[in-house]
Design brief:
single chain; 195 residues; globular
Protein backbone atom coordinates (compact mmCIF):
# COMPACT_ATOMS: atom_id res chain seq x y z
CA UNK A 1 0.00 0.00 0.00
CA UNK A 2 1.08 3.56 -0.55
CA UNK A 3 1.45 6.18 2.15
CA UNK A 4 -1.43 8.49 3.04
CA UNK A 5 0.14 11.32 1.04
CA UNK A 6 -0.10 9.24 -2.12
CA UNK A 7 -3.59 7.87 -1.52
CA UNK A 8 -6.12 9.37 -3.91
CA UNK A 9 -9.03 11.64 -3.16
CA UNK A 10 -12.08 9.37 -3.33
CA UNK A 11 -15.59 10.23 -4.51
CA UNK A 12 -18.30 7.86 -3.28
CA UNK A 13 -21.38 7.27 -5.44
CA UNK A 14 -23.86 5.07 -3.63
CA UNK A 15 -27.49 4.48 -2.77
CA UNK A 16 -27.76 5.66 0.82
CA UNK A 17 -26.10 6.70 4.04
CA UNK A 18 -25.48 3.12 5.23
CA UNK A 19 -23.48 2.49 2.04
CA UNK A 20 -21.59 5.74 2.42
CA UNK A 21 -20.67 5.16 6.08
CA UNK A 22 -19.55 1.60 5.35
CA UNK A 23 -17.30 2.67 2.45
CA UNK A 24 -15.95 5.72 4.30
CA UNK A 25 -15.09 3.72 7.43
CA UNK A 26 -13.49 0.93 5.42
CA UNK A 27 -11.32 3.39 3.46
CA UNK A 28 -10.26 5.16 6.66
CA UNK A 29 -9.27 1.79 8.16
CA UNK A 30 -7.20 1.19 4.98
CA UNK A 31 -5.29 4.44 5.55
CA UNK A 32 -7.21 6.88 3.37
CA UNK A 33 -7.56 10.37 4.80
CA UNK A 34 -11.11 11.22 5.85
CA UNK A 35 -10.79 14.74 4.45
CA UNK A 36 -10.05 13.24 1.02
CA UNK A 37 -13.24 11.15 0.95
CA UNK A 38 -16.15 12.98 -0.68
CA UNK A 39 -19.79 12.11 -1.28
CA UNK A 40 -21.53 12.49 -4.60
CA UNK A 41 -23.89 14.19 -4.00
CA UNK A 42 -24.77 15.02 -0.41
CA UNK A 43 -26.86 12.03 0.63
CA UNK A 44 -28.63 13.74 3.51
CA UNK A 45 -32.11 14.72 2.53
CA UNK A 46 -31.97 13.08 -0.90
CA UNK A 47 -35.35 11.65 -1.80
CA UNK A 48 -35.16 9.20 -4.67
CA UNK A 49 -37.75 6.64 -5.74
CA UNK A 50 -35.20 4.11 -7.00
CA UNK A 51 -31.69 4.36 -5.58
CA UNK A 52 -30.25 1.90 -8.12
CA UNK A 53 -31.44 4.13 -10.96
CA UNK A 54 -29.85 7.14 -9.24
CA UNK A 55 -26.45 5.42 -9.11
CA UNK A 56 -26.65 4.18 -12.70
CA UNK A 57 -27.76 7.62 -13.94
CA UNK A 58 -24.84 9.44 -12.32
CA UNK A 59 -22.15 6.82 -12.91
CA UNK A 60 -21.21 7.77 -16.49
CA UNK A 61 -21.03 11.56 -15.88
CA UNK A 62 -18.89 10.96 -12.78
CA UNK A 63 -16.48 8.68 -14.68
CA UNK A 64 -16.27 11.15 -17.57
CA UNK A 65 -15.39 13.91 -15.10
CA UNK A 66 -12.77 11.63 -13.56
CA UNK A 67 -11.25 10.95 -16.99
CA UNK A 68 -11.06 14.67 -17.83
CA UNK A 69 -9.01 15.16 -14.65
CA UNK A 70 -6.89 12.02 -14.97
CA UNK A 71 -3.77 13.98 -14.06
CA UNK A 72 -5.12 14.30 -10.51
CA UNK A 73 -4.78 11.59 -7.89
CA UNK A 74 -8.47 10.67 -7.71
CA UNK A 75 -10.59 7.56 -7.36
CA UNK A 76 -14.25 6.59 -7.51
CA UNK A 77 -16.04 4.02 -5.36
CA UNK A 78 -19.50 2.96 -6.47
CA UNK A 79 -21.81 0.86 -4.31
CA UNK A 80 -25.14 -0.42 -5.55
CA UNK A 81 -27.24 -3.25 -4.14
CA UNK A 82 -27.97 -6.18 -6.42
CA UNK A 83 -31.45 -6.55 -4.90
CA UNK A 84 -33.05 -9.40 -6.86
CA UNK A 85 -30.60 -9.10 -9.78
CA UNK A 86 -27.24 -10.81 -10.16
CA UNK A 87 -23.97 -8.98 -9.61
CA UNK A 88 -23.27 -9.37 -13.34
CA UNK A 89 -26.64 -7.79 -14.23
CA UNK A 90 -25.81 -4.72 -12.15
CA UNK A 91 -22.27 -4.48 -13.54
CA UNK A 92 -23.65 -4.77 -17.08
CA UNK A 93 -26.10 -1.92 -16.39
CA UNK A 94 -23.22 0.27 -15.21
CA UNK A 95 -21.03 -0.72 -18.17
CA UNK A 96 -23.85 0.08 -20.62
CA UNK A 97 -24.39 3.45 -18.93
CA UNK A 98 -20.70 4.26 -19.42
CA UNK A 99 -20.20 2.80 -22.92
CA UNK A 100 -23.29 1.26 -24.50
CA UNK A 101 -21.62 -0.74 -27.30
CA UNK A 102 -18.98 -2.23 -24.98
CA UNK A 103 -21.46 -2.81 -22.18
CA UNK A 104 -23.88 -4.65 -24.46
CA UNK A 105 -21.00 -6.97 -25.35
CA UNK A 106 -20.49 -7.60 -21.60
CA UNK A 107 -17.14 -5.80 -21.69
CA UNK A 108 -15.94 -3.61 -18.86
CA UNK A 109 -15.25 -0.14 -20.31
CA UNK A 110 -13.07 0.86 -17.36
CA UNK A 111 -9.38 1.05 -18.23
CA UNK A 112 -7.06 -1.19 -16.18
CA UNK A 113 -5.25 1.76 -14.60
CA UNK A 114 -8.42 3.65 -13.64
CA UNK A 115 -9.05 3.80 -9.91
CA UNK A 116 -12.75 3.02 -10.19
CA UNK A 117 -14.08 0.32 -7.87
CA UNK A 118 -17.62 -1.05 -8.04
CA UNK A 119 -19.06 -2.87 -5.02
CA UNK A 120 -22.33 -4.79 -5.48
CA UNK A 121 -23.65 -6.28 -2.23
CA UNK A 122 -25.99 -9.16 -2.99
CA UNK A 123 -28.85 -9.08 -2.01
CA UNK A 124 -28.19 -5.81 -0.21
CA UNK A 125 -25.69 -4.18 2.16
CA UNK A 126 -27.50 -5.75 5.12
CA UNK A 127 -26.36 -9.15 3.81
CA UNK A 128 -22.76 -7.98 4.24
CA UNK A 129 -23.54 -6.58 7.70
CA UNK A 130 -25.13 -9.88 8.68
CA UNK A 131 -22.17 -11.91 7.41
CA UNK A 132 -19.51 -9.66 8.95
CA UNK A 133 -21.06 -8.76 12.29
CA UNK A 134 -23.68 -11.40 13.12
CA UNK A 135 -23.43 -14.81 11.48
CA UNK A 136 -21.23 -16.13 8.68
CA UNK A 137 -23.79 -18.78 7.84
CA UNK A 138 -25.94 -16.68 5.51
CA UNK A 139 -26.74 -16.43 1.81
CA UNK A 140 -27.13 -13.76 -0.84
CA UNK A 141 -30.77 -14.42 -1.67
CA UNK A 142 -32.34 -13.91 1.75
CA UNK A 143 -33.27 -10.31 2.57
CA UNK A 144 -31.70 -9.64 5.99
CA UNK A 145 -32.85 -6.01 6.08
CA UNK A 146 -35.68 -6.78 8.50
CA UNK A 147 -33.87 -9.49 10.44
CA UNK A 148 -34.24 -8.98 14.22
CA UNK A 149 -30.45 -9.25 14.56
CA UNK A 150 -30.00 -6.37 12.07
CA UNK A 151 -32.91 -4.25 13.35
CA UNK A 152 -31.53 -4.07 16.89
CA UNK A 153 -28.62 -1.99 15.56
CA UNK A 154 -28.60 1.63 14.42
CA UNK A 155 -27.87 1.29 10.68
CA UNK A 156 -25.01 3.81 10.71
CA UNK A 157 -23.37 2.21 13.75
CA UNK A 158 -23.72 -1.22 12.14
CA UNK A 159 -22.21 0.07 8.90
CA UNK A 160 -19.18 1.50 10.70
CA UNK A 161 -18.73 -1.54 12.97
CA UNK A 162 -18.97 -3.93 10.00
CA UNK A 163 -16.47 -1.94 7.94
CA UNK A 164 -14.02 -1.82 10.84
CA UNK A 165 -14.33 -5.55 11.52
CA UNK A 166 -13.97 -6.40 7.83
CA UNK A 167 -10.84 -4.28 7.43
CA UNK A 168 -9.11 -5.22 10.69
CA UNK A 169 -10.16 -8.81 11.37
CA UNK A 170 -11.38 -10.47 8.18
CA UNK A 171 -9.46 -8.98 5.24
CA UNK A 172 -5.96 -9.30 6.78
CA UNK A 173 -6.52 -13.08 7.02
CA UNK A 174 -8.22 -13.25 3.63
CA UNK A 175 -11.83 -14.14 2.98
CA UNK A 176 -12.84 -17.75 3.43
CA UNK A 177 -13.38 -19.54 0.13
CA UNK A 178 -17.05 -19.97 1.08
CA UNK A 179 -17.52 -16.26 1.93
CA UNK A 180 -20.19 -14.29 0.09
CA UNK A 181 -19.37 -14.08 -3.61
CA UNK A 182 -20.19 -10.36 -3.64
CA UNK A 183 -17.57 -9.78 -0.90
CA UNK A 184 -15.00 -11.69 -2.96
CA UNK A 185 -15.88 -9.46 -5.91
CA UNK A 186 -15.50 -6.35 -3.71
CA UNK A 187 -12.04 -7.48 -2.59
CA UNK A 188 -10.99 -7.83 -6.23
CA UNK A 189 -12.39 -4.37 -6.98
CA UNK A 190 -10.60 -2.85 -4.00
CA UNK A 191 -7.28 -3.71 -5.62
CA UNK A 192 -8.08 -1.10 -8.29
CA UNK A 193 -7.75 1.57 -5.58
CA UNK A 194 -4.74 0.17 -3.79
CA UNK A 195 -2.45 -0.83 -6.68
Amino acid sequence: MTSKDHKPEVVILCEDIAHERFIRQYLICCGFEERKIKNFPNLKGRKVNNNNDFVIKHYAPLVKSYRRKNFQNRAIVVMIDADTNSINDILRSLHIALDEPEGKLNRDPRLPNEKIAIFVPARNIETWFYYISIERNCDETTDYKNSPAIRKWDSIDLAKASATKLSREICPQGLDSNALSSLHHACDELRRLLD
